[in-house]
Amino acid sequence: MAPNASSNWLLSYCTVLFPALIWLIFRILKKIIKWPNTHESTAGIPPGYRGLPLIGETLQFMAAVNSSNGFYDFVKVRRLRYGNCFKTNIFGETHVFVSSTESAKLILNNDLGRFTKRYIRSIAEVVGHQSLLCASPQQHKHIRNRLANLFSTSSIAVFVEQFDQLVVSALSRWEHKGTIVILDEALKITFRAMCKMLMSLEREDELDVMQKDIGLVCEAMLQFPLRLPWTRFYKGLQARKRVMGALEKMISERRKRGLEAHDHPHDFLQHLLLMEDDPNSCGANEALSLSDAQIKDNILTMIIAGQDTTASAITWMVKYLGENQEVLDILKAEQLSLAEKSSPNAFLKLEDLNDMPYASKVVKESLRMASIVPWFPRLALQDCEIHGYKIKKGWNVNIDARSLHLDATVYNDPDKFIPSRFDDESKPYSFLAFGQGGRTCLGINLARAMMLVFLHRLVTTYKWKVLDSDSSVEKWALFARLKSGCPVHVTKIGEDITPP
């Protein structure tokens, strides 16, 4: 191994192990007085290896986080070894992973109130405990109701035209670049779209600062929760403080001018603030509005979800299409036909998206194969049984969506990109790109709209060739982001091109 390569490897290794060892020392000191004198009974509990006392398999998990296969590789290896239900220990807590449609239905339906949503501590710390991702069941219901208007049909209709303008503007600059990194471009477009919709933030300097900070927050989500200056977790917390400060400043300025002032933008932040004075905005037993902390945490959450997950999904979609010419030809015929029916230079409308049946299947198939959100975490609120195994109160139960999406007993040829597989209805609880049940992702229709708009503009404007077929994922990323970013060579389609 060359000296530089050896040094880089050692630095990367120490970056993972040193914070891990410090964290483990704190855990040991905290729990040493509670060291058990007897072994826990294993009768009837899921198979798996709990690892060393207190440490569990945390180091193996962090090694996967720092690998080119991504943190999901940790789960994949154990599922192949133990089956569709296994247990492990990460960050000092028991985690059970399940991967069947029956278990997904049981957990996501949650009719008996046995489970609640729960992310690992590092995620809650950086996105905020008042975030929809981390809120308690009672808070979650209240926050979800308050946020629902963002995703109403009328709101999405306005957003579609705004997003289309951003996409058209961005793609117009590709012509002279030749090579484009799709992930970089998609992140810029989706970030600007979410900031405009949520808080009317459009100044380039402010956008650049906030996008950098959001990136640091995302990088901190899977880190050891150590507040040491050189760690990604600490840098993520500092970035969160800056984002919270910027949002607090916006809220303060709007209140100072008066919430009913005519010069306020009609965005989602304004909608939330106006709820304070609207007695009809909620039921008699609920608070009239969200607190400032809830507003700020959830705007941060929606920026991350709207930008990072959607941009990642768009990137994988472009890669899959570039590698499946037959699918691309069918899609291009549909989209060029739609473009011919539209007025020249007109922006897409929400109803146009309903005329994209094949594109909708392309979106769905891309989400199935990429599994941007690989598992859905829940906390067991009571003892219960899954797959015939005992699940104890306080255990983390994770629905392994990626395993389900690639299960050959659920999907024929699951490793192949076949949008037409969605000509028929999927088996219930076999497609979990947005979850299901009471905590189905609020942004499901918004994300779908963004992907369809981008897809339409791309296939009707450019031909492209994928320059890097490597499917390795980005290190440290909570969501499955393509490491290469999907570099493509683009060539503008001539105006005389007609559908094949």
From TrEMBL:
<comment type="similarity">
    <text>Belongs to the cytochrome P450 family.</text>
</comment>
<dbReference type="InterPro" id="IPR001128">
    <property type="entry name" value="Cyt_P450"/>
</dbReference>
<dbReference type="GO" id="GO:0010268">
    <property type="term" value="P:brassinosteroid homeostasis"/>
</dbReference>
<dbReference type="GO" id="GO:0016020">
    <property type="term" value="C:membrane"/>
</dbReference>
<keyword id="KW-0472">Membrane</keyword>
<dbReference type="InterPro" id="IPR017972">
    <property type="entry name" value="Cyt_P450_CS"/>
</dbReference>
<dbReference type="GO" id="GO:0005506">
    <property type="term" value="F:iron ion binding"/>
</dbReference>
<dbReference type="Pfam" id="PF00067">
    <property type="entry name" value="p450"/>
</dbReference>
<feature type="binding site" description="axial binding residue">
    <location>
        <position position="441"/>
    </location>
    <ligand>
        <name>heme</name>
    </ligand>
</feature>
<dbReference type="GO" id="GO:0016705">
    <property type="term" value="F:oxidoreductase activity, acting on paired donors, with incorporation or reduction of molecular oxygen"/>
</dbReference>
<feature type="transmembrane region" description="Helical">
    <location>
        <begin position="6"/>
        <end position="26"/>
    </location>
</feature>
<keyword id="KW-0349">Heme</keyword>
<keyword id="KW-1133">Transmembrane helix</keyword>
<dbReference type="InterPro" id="IPR036396">
    <property type="entry name" value="Cyt_P450_sf"/>
</dbReference>
<protein>
    <submittedName>
        <fullName>Uncharacterized protein</fullName>
    </submittedName>
</protein>
<keyword id="KW-0408">Iron</keyword>
<dbReference type="GO" id="GO:0016132">
    <property type="term" value="P:brassinosteroid biosynthetic process"/>
</dbReference>
<keyword id="KW-0479">Metal-binding</keyword>
<keyword id="KW-0503">Monooxygenase</keyword>
<keyword id="KW-0812">Transmembrane</keyword>
<dbReference type="InterPro" id="IPR002401">
    <property type="entry name" value="Cyt_P450_E_grp-I"/>
</dbReference>
<dbReference type="GO" id="GO:0016125">
    <property type="term" value="P:sterol metabolic process"/>
</dbReference>
<keyword id="KW-0560">Oxidoreductase</keyword>
<dbReference type="GO" id="GO:0004497">
    <property type="term" value="F:monooxygenase activity"/>
</dbReference>
<dbReference type="GO" id="GO:0020037">
    <property type="term" value="F:heme binding"/>
</dbReference>
